[in-house]
Structures are given as structure tokens and as C-alpha cells.
Design a protein that fits this description.
Elements (H helix, E strand, L loop, with lengths): L2 H8 L3 H23 L7 H31 L1
Helix pairs in contact: 2-3
Length: 75
């Protein structure tokens, strides 16, 4: 994933990130199914899908931590 793709993810809202996460999980499921039935030619797609999920989860967690920090500093 290029830095442009990461930047694109950072520009999305939390709701869009959650939707992307659901789609990425579904894609990973499909890739694993294809791999188990020997229909997947490029097995590196599974690794890329797992990394995309990790990036999305990281962005969501960063935003949650930041919002929690801002709430604590206001009090």
C-alpha cells in the first residue's frame, strides 16, 4: 500500500473507515476461501488484505485515543 493510499484512508470519516473495515474483512474471508479451494493464484493478496485491515484498525484506534485524550484535558 502506497503512502497515497494511507493518506486516502486518513481523509475518510470514522463511519467510512468502519465501512471499509467491514469490506476488508469480507474480502479477506473470500480470499481465504479461494485459497483453501485452490482457486487463488496470487496468495500475497491475503497478506495485503490483512495489512489493510491492520491499517484501518490503527487509524480508528488513533482517533479514539486522540478524542479520549482531548476529553481528559478539557476536564
Amino acid at each position: 500500500m502506497s503512502s497515497a493510499d494511507v493518506q486516502e484512508l486518513r481523509e475518510k470519516t470514522n463511519e467510512e473507515l468502519v465501512q471499509d473495515l467491514e469490506e476488508a474483512h469480507q474480502a479477506l474471508f473470500n480470499l481465504r476461501f479461494q485459497a483453501s479451494t485452490r482457486q487463488l493464484e496470487d496468495v500475497s493478496q491475503v497478506k495485503r488484505a490483512r495489512r489493510r485491515i491492520a491499517r484501518i484498525k490503527t487509524l480508528i484506534r488513533e482517533r479514539n485515543d486522540l478524542s479520549n485524550f482531548e476529553v481528559q484535558t478539557e476536564e
